[in-house]
Write a structure and sequence with these properties.
The chain has 22 helices and ten strands. By secondary structure, the chain is of the alpha/beta class.
Protein backbone atom coordinates (compact mmCIF):
# COMPACT_ATOMS: atom_id res chain seq x y z
CA UNK A 1 0.00 0.00 0.00
CA UNK A 2 1.11 3.54 -0.64
CA UNK A 3 1.62 6.09 2.11
CA UNK A 4 -1.55 7.92 1.10
CA UNK A 5 -3.60 4.71 1.24
CA UNK A 6 -2.28 3.93 4.72
CA UNK A 7 -3.08 7.44 5.92
CA UNK A 8 -6.59 7.24 4.51
CA UNK A 9 -7.16 3.77 5.98
CA UNK A 10 -5.96 4.68 9.47
CA UNK A 11 -7.80 8.00 9.52
CA UNK A 12 -11.04 6.51 8.24
CA UNK A 13 -10.89 3.64 10.74
CA UNK A 14 -10.42 6.05 13.64
CA UNK A 15 -13.16 8.39 12.44
CA UNK A 16 -15.65 5.55 11.97
CA UNK A 17 -14.80 4.02 15.37
CA UNK A 18 -15.37 7.24 17.32
CA UNK A 19 -18.28 8.39 15.18
CA UNK A 20 -20.10 5.08 15.62
CA UNK A 21 -19.71 5.26 19.40
CA UNK A 22 -21.04 8.83 19.44
CA UNK A 23 -24.05 7.74 17.36
CA UNK A 24 -24.67 4.75 19.63
CA UNK A 25 -24.60 7.03 22.66
CA UNK A 26 -27.16 9.33 21.04
CA UNK A 27 -29.39 6.38 20.14
CA UNK A 28 -28.93 4.82 23.61
CA UNK A 29 -27.99 1.43 22.17
CA UNK A 30 -24.88 -0.74 22.76
CA UNK A 31 -21.97 0.53 20.68
CA UNK A 32 -21.55 -2.86 18.98
CA UNK A 33 -24.98 -2.52 17.38
CA UNK A 34 -23.59 0.42 15.39
CA UNK A 35 -19.88 -0.51 15.11
CA UNK A 36 -20.32 -3.88 13.43
CA UNK A 37 -22.64 -2.87 10.57
CA UNK A 38 -20.69 0.37 10.01
CA UNK A 39 -17.41 -1.54 9.79
CA UNK A 40 -18.98 -4.13 7.49
CA UNK A 41 -20.41 -1.47 5.17
CA UNK A 42 -17.19 0.55 5.15
CA UNK A 43 -15.13 -2.55 4.42
CA UNK A 44 -17.36 -3.33 1.44
CA UNK A 45 -16.97 0.22 0.09
CA UNK A 46 -13.31 0.97 0.86
CA UNK A 47 -10.41 -1.42 0.29
CA UNK A 48 -8.17 0.83 2.39
CA UNK A 49 -9.92 -0.35 5.58
CA UNK A 50 -8.65 -3.93 5.29
CA UNK A 51 -6.41 -4.41 8.38
CA UNK A 52 -4.49 -7.20 6.70
CA UNK A 53 -3.41 -4.76 4.02
CA UNK A 54 -2.73 -1.96 6.49
CA UNK A 55 -0.78 -3.95 9.07
CA UNK A 56 0.07 -7.27 7.43
CA UNK A 57 1.31 -9.95 9.83
CA UNK A 58 1.38 -7.41 12.69
CA UNK A 59 -2.43 -7.32 12.84
CA UNK A 60 -2.93 -10.55 14.79
CA UNK A 61 -0.39 -9.87 17.60
CA UNK A 62 -1.59 -6.28 17.88
CA UNK A 63 -5.15 -7.55 18.35
CA UNK A 64 -3.96 -9.91 21.12
CA UNK A 65 -2.17 -7.10 22.95
CA UNK A 66 -5.13 -4.74 22.53
CA UNK A 67 -7.44 -7.35 24.05
CA UNK A 68 -4.98 -7.75 26.93
CA UNK A 69 -5.34 -4.02 27.70
CA UNK A 70 -9.13 -4.40 27.63
CA UNK A 71 -9.01 -7.32 30.06
CA UNK A 72 -6.60 -5.47 32.36
CA UNK A 73 -9.15 -2.69 32.61
CA UNK A 74 -11.84 -5.31 33.26
CA UNK A 75 -9.71 -6.74 36.06
CA UNK A 76 -9.51 -3.29 37.65
CA UNK A 77 -13.27 -3.47 38.12
CA UNK A 78 -13.31 -6.84 39.91
CA UNK A 79 -13.62 -6.50 43.68
CA UNK A 80 -12.97 -9.73 45.59
CA UNK A 81 -14.93 -8.38 48.56
CA UNK A 82 -18.11 -8.66 46.52
CA UNK A 83 -17.74 -12.43 46.09
CA UNK A 84 -20.06 -13.33 48.94
CA UNK A 85 -22.42 -16.22 49.60
CA UNK A 86 -23.00 -18.46 46.60
CA UNK A 87 -21.64 -15.97 44.07
CA UNK A 88 -18.18 -17.62 43.74
CA UNK A 89 -19.75 -21.05 43.24
CA UNK A 90 -22.06 -19.75 40.51
CA UNK A 91 -19.25 -17.86 38.75
CA UNK A 92 -16.91 -20.88 38.72
CA UNK A 93 -19.67 -23.11 37.39
CA UNK A 94 -20.65 -20.60 34.71
CA UNK A 95 -17.08 -20.68 33.45
CA UNK A 96 -16.30 -24.40 33.34
CA UNK A 97 -19.84 -25.66 32.74
CA UNK A 98 -20.49 -22.81 30.33
CA UNK A 99 -17.37 -23.54 28.31
CA UNK A 100 -18.04 -27.27 28.01
CA UNK A 101 -21.78 -27.08 27.29
CA UNK A 102 -21.55 -24.16 24.85
CA UNK A 103 -18.57 -25.68 23.07
CA UNK A 104 -20.25 -29.04 22.57
CA UNK A 105 -23.63 -27.65 21.53
CA UNK A 106 -22.07 -25.04 19.26
CA UNK A 107 -19.88 -27.64 17.57
CA UNK A 108 -22.71 -30.14 17.11
CA UNK A 109 -25.07 -27.55 15.61
CA UNK A 110 -22.49 -25.74 13.45
CA UNK A 111 -21.53 -28.83 11.45
CA UNK A 112 -24.92 -29.48 9.79
CA UNK A 113 -26.11 -25.87 9.70
CA UNK A 114 -22.99 -24.31 8.20
CA UNK A 115 -21.66 -27.37 6.39
CA UNK A 116 -18.36 -27.23 8.25
CA UNK A 117 -15.64 -29.81 8.47
CA UNK A 118 -15.54 -31.35 11.95
CA UNK A 119 -12.31 -29.52 12.69
CA UNK A 120 -13.72 -26.13 11.65
CA UNK A 121 -16.85 -26.80 13.72
CA UNK A 122 -14.71 -27.54 16.79
CA UNK A 123 -12.87 -24.28 16.20
CA UNK A 124 -16.07 -22.25 15.83
CA UNK A 125 -17.58 -23.87 18.94
CA UNK A 126 -14.48 -22.94 20.96
CA UNK A 127 -14.60 -19.35 19.69
CA UNK A 128 -18.25 -18.87 20.69
CA UNK A 129 -17.88 -19.88 24.37
CA UNK A 130 -16.75 -16.38 25.38
CA UNK A 131 -18.90 -13.45 26.43
CA UNK A 132 -16.99 -10.35 27.56
CA UNK A 133 -17.13 -7.45 30.03
CA UNK A 134 -17.10 -4.83 27.29
CA UNK A 135 -20.48 -6.10 26.07
CA UNK A 136 -22.02 -7.30 29.33
CA UNK A 137 -21.01 -4.21 31.34
CA UNK A 138 -22.84 -1.60 29.23
CA UNK A 139 -25.94 -3.81 29.03
CA UNK A 140 -26.03 -4.26 32.81
CA UNK A 141 -25.52 -0.54 33.35
CA UNK A 142 -28.62 0.06 31.23
CA UNK A 143 -30.70 -2.74 32.79
CA UNK A 144 -29.59 -2.12 36.43
CA UNK A 145 -30.23 -5.64 37.77
CA UNK A 146 -29.88 -6.52 41.43
CA UNK A 147 -26.38 -6.33 42.88
CA UNK A 148 -25.87 -10.10 43.06
CA UNK A 149 -26.75 -10.58 39.40
CA UNK A 150 -24.48 -7.68 38.47
CA UNK A 151 -21.53 -9.27 40.29
CA UNK A 152 -22.13 -12.74 38.83
CA UNK A 153 -22.39 -11.61 35.22
CA UNK A 154 -19.49 -9.13 35.37
CA UNK A 155 -17.17 -11.71 36.93
CA UNK A 156 -18.22 -14.35 34.41
CA UNK A 157 -17.67 -12.02 31.47
CA UNK A 158 -14.25 -10.94 32.71
CA UNK A 159 -12.92 -14.43 33.47
CA UNK A 160 -14.41 -16.47 30.64
CA UNK A 161 -12.66 -14.38 27.98
CA UNK A 162 -9.09 -15.47 28.82
CA UNK A 163 -10.25 -19.06 29.41
CA UNK A 164 -11.98 -19.08 26.04
CA UNK A 165 -8.95 -17.51 24.37
CA UNK A 166 -6.64 -20.24 25.68
CA UNK A 167 -9.14 -22.94 24.68
CA UNK A 168 -9.28 -21.45 21.19
CA UNK A 169 -5.47 -21.45 20.94
CA UNK A 170 -5.27 -25.12 21.99
CA UNK A 171 -8.02 -26.17 19.56
CA UNK A 172 -6.35 -24.19 16.77
CA UNK A 173 -3.04 -25.96 17.42
CA UNK A 174 -4.70 -29.38 17.31
CA UNK A 175 -6.75 -28.59 14.20
CA UNK A 176 -3.96 -26.85 12.31
CA UNK A 177 -1.36 -29.57 12.95
CA UNK A 178 -3.82 -32.39 12.31
CA UNK A 179 -2.57 -34.24 15.39
CA UNK A 180 -5.04 -35.91 17.67
CA UNK A 181 -4.96 -35.16 21.36
CA UNK A 182 -6.04 -37.23 24.30
CA UNK A 183 -8.15 -35.73 27.04
CA UNK A 184 -5.36 -36.07 29.58
CA UNK A 185 -2.83 -34.39 27.30
CA UNK A 186 -5.25 -31.61 26.41
CA UNK A 187 -6.06 -31.02 30.07
CA UNK A 188 -2.37 -30.83 30.94
CA UNK A 189 -1.76 -28.36 28.11
CA UNK A 190 -4.67 -26.24 29.26
CA UNK A 191 -3.42 -26.24 32.86
CA UNK A 192 0.07 -25.37 31.64
CA UNK A 193 -1.35 -22.39 29.77
CA UNK A 194 -3.34 -21.27 32.80
CA UNK A 195 -0.24 -21.65 34.97
CA UNK A 196 1.82 -19.60 32.53
CA UNK A 197 -0.81 -16.87 32.54
CA UNK A 198 -1.01 -16.83 36.34
CA UNK A 199 2.78 -16.73 36.67
CA UNK A 200 2.91 -13.85 34.21
CA UNK A 201 0.18 -12.05 36.17
CA UNK A 202 2.09 -12.44 39.44
CA UNK A 203 5.29 -11.19 37.82
CA UNK A 204 3.39 -8.29 36.27
CA UNK A 205 1.80 -7.38 39.61
CA UNK A 206 5.27 -7.35 41.19
CA UNK A 207 6.51 -5.08 38.41
CA UNK A 208 3.59 -2.72 38.97
CA UNK A 209 4.37 -2.73 42.69
CA UNK A 210 7.90 -1.51 41.94
CA UNK A 211 6.70 1.10 39.48
CA UNK A 212 3.83 2.49 41.52
CA UNK A 213 4.91 1.97 45.12
CA UNK A 214 8.69 1.78 45.20
CA UNK A 215 9.49 4.33 42.50
CA UNK A 216 6.31 6.30 43.33
CA UNK A 217 5.79 7.51 39.79
CA UNK A 218 3.48 10.45 39.31
CA UNK A 219 0.00 10.33 37.87
CA UNK A 220 0.90 10.67 34.19
CA UNK A 221 4.07 8.58 34.22
CA UNK A 222 2.46 6.01 36.52
CA UNK A 223 -0.41 5.56 34.07
CA UNK A 224 1.87 5.10 31.07
CA UNK A 225 4.00 2.71 33.14
CA UNK A 226 0.91 0.58 33.82
CA UNK A 227 0.14 0.45 30.11
CA UNK A 228 3.71 -0.49 29.23
CA UNK A 229 3.84 -3.14 31.95
CA UNK A 230 0.58 -4.77 30.85
CA UNK A 231 1.56 -4.88 27.19
CA UNK A 232 5.12 -6.00 27.90
CA UNK A 233 4.30 -8.79 30.35
CA UNK A 234 1.32 -9.99 28.28
CA UNK A 235 3.55 -10.13 25.20
CA UNK A 236 6.11 -12.27 27.04
CA UNK A 237 3.35 -14.62 28.23
CA UNK A 238 2.03 -14.95 24.67
CA UNK A 239 5.52 -15.79 23.43
CA UNK A 240 5.82 -18.56 26.02
CA UNK A 241 2.34 -19.99 25.35
CA UNK A 242 -0.31 -18.71 22.95
CA UNK A 243 -2.99 -16.37 24.37
CA UNK A 244 -1.82 -16.72 27.98
CA UNK A 245 -1.32 -12.94 27.99
CA UNK A 246 -5.09 -12.62 28.46
CA UNK A 247 -4.94 -14.34 31.85
CA UNK A 248 -1.84 -12.34 32.71
CA UNK A 249 -3.66 -9.08 32.04
CA UNK A 250 -6.71 -10.02 34.14
CA UNK A 251 -4.54 -11.12 37.07
CA UNK A 252 -2.57 -7.87 36.95
CA UNK A 253 -5.81 -5.88 37.00
CA UNK A 254 -7.14 -7.96 39.89
CA UNK A 255 -3.97 -7.29 41.87
CA UNK A 256 -4.14 -3.53 41.37
CA UNK A 257 -7.84 -3.48 42.26
CA UNK A 258 -7.68 -5.63 45.40
CA UNK A 259 -4.27 -5.05 47.03
CA UNK A 260 -4.86 -2.01 49.20
CA UNK A 261 -1.38 -0.57 48.70
CA UNK A 262 -2.02 -0.04 44.99
CA UNK A 263 -3.64 3.19 43.83
CA UNK A 264 -5.45 1.88 40.78
CA UNK A 265 -8.90 3.51 40.73
CA UNK A 266 -7.53 7.05 40.52
CA UNK A 267 -5.98 6.18 37.15
CA UNK A 268 -8.91 4.26 35.66
CA UNK A 269 -10.38 7.08 33.55
CA UNK A 270 -7.36 6.90 31.23
CA UNK A 271 -7.83 3.19 30.72
CA UNK A 272 -11.57 3.56 30.23
CA UNK A 273 -10.90 6.10 27.47
CA UNK A 274 -8.22 3.91 25.92
CA UNK A 275 -10.43 0.80 26.09
CA UNK A 276 -13.29 2.65 24.41
CA UNK A 277 -10.99 3.70 21.58
CA UNK A 278 -9.46 0.21 21.24
CA UNK A 279 -12.89 -1.41 21.10
CA UNK A 280 -14.04 0.90 18.35
CA UNK A 281 -10.88 0.34 16.29
CA UNK A 282 -10.98 -3.44 16.70
CA UNK A 283 -14.62 -3.87 15.80
CA UNK A 284 -14.39 -1.56 12.78
CA UNK A 285 -11.22 -3.33 11.59
CA UNK A 286 -12.44 -6.88 12.15
CA UNK A 287 -15.91 -6.34 10.70
CA UNK A 288 -14.31 -4.68 7.66
CA UNK A 289 -12.71 -8.03 6.81
CA UNK A 290 -16.16 -9.64 6.47
CA UNK A 291 -17.27 -9.31 2.86
CA UNK A 292 -20.84 -9.45 1.50
CA UNK A 293 -19.89 -12.53 -0.53
CA UNK A 294 -18.74 -14.37 2.60
CA UNK A 295 -22.13 -13.76 4.25
CA UNK A 296 -24.25 -14.87 1.32
CA UNK A 297 -24.45 -18.54 2.29
CA UNK A 298 -23.67 -18.08 5.98
CA UNK A 299 -26.07 -15.45 7.32
CA UNK A 300 -29.24 -17.54 7.77
CA UNK A 301 -27.52 -20.70 9.13
CA UNK A 302 -25.47 -18.55 11.52
CA UNK A 303 -28.67 -16.89 12.74
CA UNK A 304 -30.09 -20.33 13.48
CA UNK A 305 -26.88 -21.15 15.35
CA UNK A 306 -27.32 -17.97 17.42
CA UNK A 307 -30.90 -19.02 18.21
CA UNK A 308 -29.71 -22.39 19.49
CA UNK A 309 -27.03 -20.74 21.64
CA UNK A 310 -29.57 -18.30 23.11
CA UNK A 311 -32.56 -20.64 23.56
CA UNK A 312 -30.86 -23.96 24.35
CA UNK A 313 -27.21 -23.61 25.38
CA UNK A 314 -27.36 -20.58 27.70
CA UNK A 315 -30.48 -21.63 29.67
CA UNK A 316 -28.92 -25.07 30.15
CA UNK A 317 -25.67 -23.50 31.39
CA UNK A 318 -27.57 -21.23 33.78
CA UNK A 319 -29.65 -24.12 35.15
CA UNK A 320 -26.64 -26.35 35.80
CA UNK A 321 -24.54 -23.50 37.22
CA UNK A 322 -27.16 -22.29 39.71
CA UNK A 323 -28.38 -25.72 40.80
CA UNK A 324 -28.26 -26.05 44.58
CA UNK A 325 -27.55 -22.35 45.17
CA UNK A 326 -29.64 -19.71 46.93
CA UNK A 327 -30.47 -17.84 43.71
CA UNK A 328 -34.27 -17.63 43.27
CA UNK A 329 -35.87 -18.76 40.04
CA UNK A 330 -36.20 -15.25 38.59
CA UNK A 331 -32.48 -14.53 39.03
CA UNK A 332 -31.57 -17.89 37.49
CA UNK A 333 -33.78 -17.08 34.52
CA UNK A 334 -32.06 -13.73 34.01
CA UNK A 335 -28.62 -15.39 34.12
CA UNK A 336 -29.97 -17.65 31.37
CA UNK A 337 -30.84 -14.58 29.28
CA UNK A 338 -27.52 -12.78 29.25
CA UNK A 339 -24.69 -14.13 27.10
CA UNK A 340 -23.80 -11.68 24.32
CA UNK A 341 -20.62 -12.31 22.35
CA UNK A 342 -18.03 -9.57 22.16
CA UNK A 343 -14.53 -8.53 21.20
CA UNK A 344 -12.66 -11.72 22.17
CA UNK A 345 -14.94 -13.82 19.95
CA UNK A 346 -14.31 -11.42 17.06
CA UNK A 347 -10.56 -11.26 17.70
CA UNK A 348 -10.04 -15.01 18.00
CA UNK A 349 -12.20 -15.68 14.94
CA UNK A 350 -10.19 -13.18 12.92
CA UNK A 351 -6.89 -14.67 14.10
CA UNK A 352 -7.63 -18.40 13.90
CA UNK A 353 -9.81 -18.53 10.79
CA UNK A 354 -7.09 -17.04 8.59
CA UNK A 355 -4.63 -19.70 9.74
CA UNK A 356 -7.08 -22.53 9.10
CA UNK A 357 -7.97 -21.17 5.65
CA UNK A 358 -4.26 -21.19 4.81
CA UNK A 359 -4.11 -24.83 5.93
CA UNK A 360 -7.00 -25.73 3.62
CA UNK A 361 -9.35 -26.85 6.42
CA UNK A 362 -12.85 -27.38 5.04
CA UNK A 363 -15.28 -24.58 5.87
CA UNK A 364 -12.67 -22.47 7.69
CA UNK A 365 -13.54 -19.46 5.52
CA UNK A 366 -17.01 -19.48 7.14
CA UNK A 367 -15.78 -19.15 10.73
CA UNK A 368 -15.29 -15.36 10.73
CA UNK A 369 -18.58 -14.41 8.99
CA UNK A 370 -20.51 -16.88 11.15
CA UNK A 371 -18.95 -15.37 14.29
CA UNK A 372 -19.80 -11.90 12.97
CA UNK A 373 -23.46 -12.85 12.56
CA UNK A 374 -23.65 -14.46 16.02
CA UNK A 375 -22.11 -11.36 17.64
CA UNK A 376 -24.56 -9.01 15.88
CA UNK A 377 -27.53 -11.26 16.63
CA UNK A 378 -26.79 -11.81 20.33
CA UNK A 379 -25.84 -8.20 21.08
CA UNK A 380 -28.93 -6.89 19.29
CA UNK A 381 -31.26 -9.43 20.89
CA UNK A 382 -30.00 -8.97 24.45
CA UNK A 383 -29.64 -5.22 24.01
CA UNK A 384 -33.28 -4.86 22.95
CA UNK A 385 -34.81 -7.36 25.38
CA UNK A 386 -32.67 -7.52 28.54
CA UNK A 387 -34.32 -4.53 30.20
CA UNK A 388 -37.89 -5.73 29.62
CA UNK A 389 -36.98 -9.29 30.65
CA UNK A 390 -35.41 -8.00 33.88
CA UNK A 391 -38.53 -5.95 34.66
CA UNK A 392 -40.85 -8.90 33.99
CA UNK A 393 -38.72 -11.11 36.24
CA UNK A 394 -38.59 -8.31 38.84
CA UNK A 395 -34.83 -8.52 39.22
CA UNK A 396 -34.08 -4.82 38.64
CA UNK A 397 -32.95 -2.52 41.41
CA UNK A 398 -35.65 -0.35 42.92
CA UNK A 399 -36.29 2.75 40.82
CA UNK A 400 -36.31 4.91 43.95
CA UNK A 401 -33.25 7.08 44.49
CA UNK A 402 -30.57 5.92 46.93
CA UNK A 403 -28.57 9.01 47.89
CA UNK A 404 -25.22 9.05 49.70
CA UNK A 405 -24.92 12.02 52.06
CA UNK A 406 -21.30 12.85 52.91
CA UNK A 407 -21.13 14.79 56.16
CA UNK A 408 -22.12 14.32 59.79
CA UNK A 409 -23.14 17.74 61.08
CA UNK A 410 -26.55 17.89 62.82
CA UNK A 411 -28.30 19.51 59.87
CA UNK A 412 -27.01 16.77 57.53
CA UNK A 413 -28.34 14.07 59.88
CA UNK A 414 -31.62 16.01 59.99
CA UNK A 415 -31.66 15.94 56.18
CA UNK A 416 -31.00 12.19 56.13
CA UNK A 417 -33.94 11.59 58.46
CA UNK A 418 -36.20 13.77 56.30
CA UNK A 419 -35.24 11.88 53.13
CA UNK A 420 -35.78 8.56 54.86
CA UNK A 421 -39.23 9.71 55.99
CA UNK A 422 -39.98 10.33 52.30
CA UNK A 423 -39.35 6.64 51.62
CA UNK A 424 -35.78 6.83 50.30
CA UNK A 425 -32.96 4.45 51.24
CA UNK A 426 -30.36 6.86 52.61
CA UNK A 427 -26.67 6.02 53.06
CA UNK A 428 -24.36 8.36 54.99
CA UNK A 429 -20.62 8.77 55.45
CA UNK A 430 -18.61 10.96 57.82
CA UNK A 431 -14.95 11.11 58.73
CA UNK A 432 -15.04 12.19 62.40
CA UNK A 433 -15.92 9.62 65.02
CA UNK A 434 -18.27 12.05 66.76
CA UNK A 435 -20.18 12.54 63.52
CA UNK A 436 -20.31 8.81 62.85
CA UNK A 437 -21.72 8.23 66.33
CA UNK A 438 -24.33 10.93 65.69
CA UNK A 439 -25.38 9.15 62.47
CA UNK A 440 -25.56 5.84 64.29
CA UNK A 441 -27.73 7.26 67.08
CA UNK A 442 -30.14 8.60 64.45
CA UNK A 443 -30.57 5.07 63.09
CA UNK A 444 -29.26 5.93 59.61
CA UNK A 445 -27.14 3.52 57.58
CA UNK A 446 -23.44 4.38 57.79
CA UNK A 447 -21.03 3.54 54.98
CA UNK A 448 -17.68 2.10 56.12
CA UNK A 449 -14.28 3.33 55.03
CA UNK A 450 -11.59 5.88 55.76
CA UNK A 451 -11.53 9.49 54.60
CA UNK A 452 -9.23 8.96 51.58
CA UNK A 453 -10.99 5.74 50.62
CA UNK A 454 -14.33 7.52 50.61
CA UNK A 455 -12.94 10.30 48.46
CA UNK A 456 -11.73 7.78 45.86
CA UNK A 457 -14.90 5.75 46.01
CA UNK A 458 -13.33 2.62 47.53
CA UNK A 459 -14.38 2.75 51.17
CA UNK A 460 -18.00 3.82 50.90
CA UNK A 461 -20.26 1.18 49.45
CA UNK A 462 -21.25 3.18 46.40
CA UNK A 463 -22.90 0.30 44.61
CA UNK A 464 -26.53 1.11 43.89
CA UNK A 465 -26.02 4.76 44.84
CA UNK A 466 -27.90 7.08 42.48
CA UNK A 467 -26.39 10.38 43.66
CA UNK A 468 -23.65 11.63 45.99
CA UNK A 469 -24.17 14.85 47.98
CA UNK A 470 -21.03 16.35 49.56
CA UNK A 471 -22.30 18.36 52.53
CA UNK A 472 -19.31 18.90 54.81
CA UNK A 473 -18.16 22.31 56.00
CA UNK A 474 -14.75 21.68 54.40
CA UNK A 475 -15.22 23.45 51.08
CA UNK A 476 -11.95 22.23 49.61
CA UNK A 477 -12.75 18.62 50.50
CA UNK A 478 -16.16 18.93 48.85
CA UNK A 479 -14.64 20.39 45.68
CA UNK A 480 -11.81 17.86 45.40
CA UNK A 481 -14.04 14.90 46.26
CA UNK A 482 -16.44 16.06 43.55
CA UNK A 483 -13.68 15.92 40.95
CA UNK A 484 -12.46 12.48 42.08
CA UNK A 485 -15.87 10.88 42.48
CA UNK A 486 -17.10 12.10 39.13
CA UNK A 487 -14.32 10.10 37.49
CA UNK A 488 -14.97 6.97 39.56
CA UNK A 489 -18.72 6.52 40.05
CA UNK A 490 -21.69 6.40 37.72
CA UNK A 491 -23.92 8.36 40.11
CA UNK A 492 -24.35 12.10 39.82
CA UNK A 493 -22.20 14.12 42.25
CA UNK A 494 -23.28 17.40 43.88
CA UNK A 495 -21.72 19.63 46.56
CA UNK A 496 -22.83 22.49 48.74
CA UNK A 497 -21.44 25.81 47.64
CA UNK A 498 -18.58 27.72 49.20
CA UNK A 499 -18.85 31.40 50.15
CA UNK A 500 -18.08 33.66 47.22
CA UNK A 501 -15.30 35.32 49.21
CA UNK A 502 -13.79 31.95 50.12
CA UNK A 503 -10.01 31.82 50.44
CA UNK A 504 -9.84 28.05 50.04
CA UNK A 505 -7.20 26.39 47.91
CA UNK A 506 -9.72 24.93 45.49
CA UNK A 507 -13.23 26.10 46.35
CA UNK A 508 -15.13 27.92 45.01
CA UNK A 509 -13.22 27.94 41.73
CA UNK A 510 -13.74 24.33 40.68
CA UNK A 511 -16.85 23.52 38.63
CA UNK A 512 -19.62 21.09 39.43
CA UNK A 513 -23.28 20.99 40.42
CA UNK A 514 -23.66 23.35 43.39
CA UNK A 515 -26.60 22.67 45.67
CA UNK A 516 -29.33 24.96 47.00
CA UNK A 517 -28.07 28.36 45.86
CA UNK A 518 -25.42 30.95 46.59
CA UNK A 519 -26.67 31.83 50.07
CA UNK A 520 -27.14 28.30 51.43
CA UNK A 521 -23.50 27.34 51.88
CA UNK A 522 -22.50 24.61 54.30
CA UNK A 523 -21.56 27.07 57.04
CA UNK A 524 -24.78 29.05 56.49
CA UNK A 525 -26.86 25.88 56.70
CA UNK A 526 -25.14 24.83 59.91
CA UNK A 527 -25.64 28.27 61.53
CA UNK A 528 -29.29 28.36 60.54
CA UNK A 529 -29.87 24.88 61.93
CA UNK A 530 -28.16 25.82 65.18
CA UNK A 531 -30.55 28.78 65.37
CA UNK A 532 -33.57 26.47 65.34
CA UNK A 533 -34.26 25.68 61.67
CA UNK A 534 -35.15 22.07 60.88
CA UNK A 535 -35.39 19.99 57.73
CA UNK A 536 -38.90 18.68 57.06
CA UNK A 537 -40.78 16.84 54.32
CA UNK A 538 -44.15 18.12 53.17
CA UNK A 539 -46.50 17.30 50.26
CA UNK A 540 -45.97 19.73 47.42
CA UNK A 541 -48.40 22.60 47.58
CA UNK A 542 -49.17 25.64 45.45
CA UNK A 543 -46.81 27.90 47.38
CA UNK A 544 -43.81 27.64 49.67
CA UNK A 545 -44.20 29.75 52.85
CA UNK A 546 -42.02 32.80 53.18
CA UNK A 547 -38.65 32.08 54.77
CA UNK A 548 -38.76 28.38 53.87
CA UNK A 549 -36.19 27.04 51.37
CA UNK A 550 -36.75 24.07 49.07
CA UNK A 551 -33.77 21.69 49.15
CA UNK A 552 -35.10 18.72 47.20
CA UNK A 553 -38.17 17.53 45.32
CA UNK A 554 -39.07 13.87 45.92
CA UNK A 555 -41.06 12.62 42.96
CA UNK A 556 -43.95 10.25 43.51
CA UNK A 557 -41.93 7.46 41.84
CA UNK A 558 -39.14 7.95 44.41
CA UNK A 559 -36.73 9.96 42.26
CA UNK A 560 -34.87 12.68 44.11
CA UNK A 561 -34.29 15.99 42.30
CA UNK A 562 -32.04 18.52 44.07
CA UNK A 563 -32.32 22.27 43.89
CA UNK A 564 -29.11 23.65 42.39
CA UNK A 565 -27.76 27.02 41.39
CA UNK A 566 -28.50 26.19 37.76
CA UNK A 567 -31.87 24.48 38.10
CA UNK A 568 -34.92 24.60 40.35
CA UNK A 569 -37.14 21.53 39.75
CA UNK A 570 -40.87 22.16 39.65
CA UNK A 571 -43.02 19.82 41.78
CA UNK A 572 -45.90 17.92 40.25
CA UNK A 573 -48.98 16.10 41.57
CA UNK A 574 -48.05 13.56 44.23
CA UNK A 575 -44.55 14.95 44.75
CA UNK A 576 -43.07 15.96 48.11
CA UNK A 577 -40.77 18.81 49.07
CA UNK A 578 -37.79 18.64 51.41
CA UNK A 579 -37.72 22.05 53.09
CA UNK A 580 -35.51 24.00 55.46
CA UNK A 581 -37.69 25.97 57.88
CA UNK A 582 -36.85 29.48 59.11
CA UNK A 583 -34.67 29.87 62.18
CA UNK A 584 -36.65 30.17 65.42
CA UNK A 585 -33.83 31.51 67.54
CA UNK A 586 -33.94 28.40 69.72
CA UNK A 587 -30.99 25.99 69.40
CA UNK A 588 -31.79 22.56 68.00
CA UNK A 589 -30.47 19.68 70.09
CA UNK A 590 -28.68 16.68 68.59
CA UNK A 591 -30.90 13.81 67.38
CA UNK A 592 -31.37 11.11 69.94
Amino acid sequence: MTTDEVLIGVGLTLALAVGSQILAGRLRVPALVVLLPVGFAAGALFDDLDPQRLLGTAFSPLVSLAVAVILYDAGLGLDLRKLKGHIPRVVVRLIWVGVLVTWLIGTAVAMPLLGLDRRSAFMLGAILVVSGPTVVGPLLAFVRPKDRLQHILVWEGSLIDPVGGILGALVFHVVATGSGVRFRTGALQFLASVGTGLAGGIAGAALLWVLLRVLRLGEVLGTTAQLAAVIGVAAVSDVLRDDTGLITAVVMGLAVANIRAFDGPARRPFFETLVSLILGLLFISISATVTPDSLRDVAFPALLLAVVLVVVARPMVAFLSTLGTDLPGAERAFVGWMAPRGIVAAATASTFSAGLVAKGIGGAQRILPATFVVIVATVTLYGLTASSVARRLRVVRPSRSRPLLVGGDPWVVDLGLALRSAGLEVLMWAGLEQQRERIGRAGLELAPGELLAAATGEGAELEGITAVYLLTTEDDFNALATAVLRAGVEASVHRVGAPRDSLGVVAPFIGGEVLFGADLTASALMRRHEAGAVVVTRPAGPEVPDGWDVLFVVRRNGRLDPVTEAQRPLPGPGDSLVLLTPATGRPVGPPS
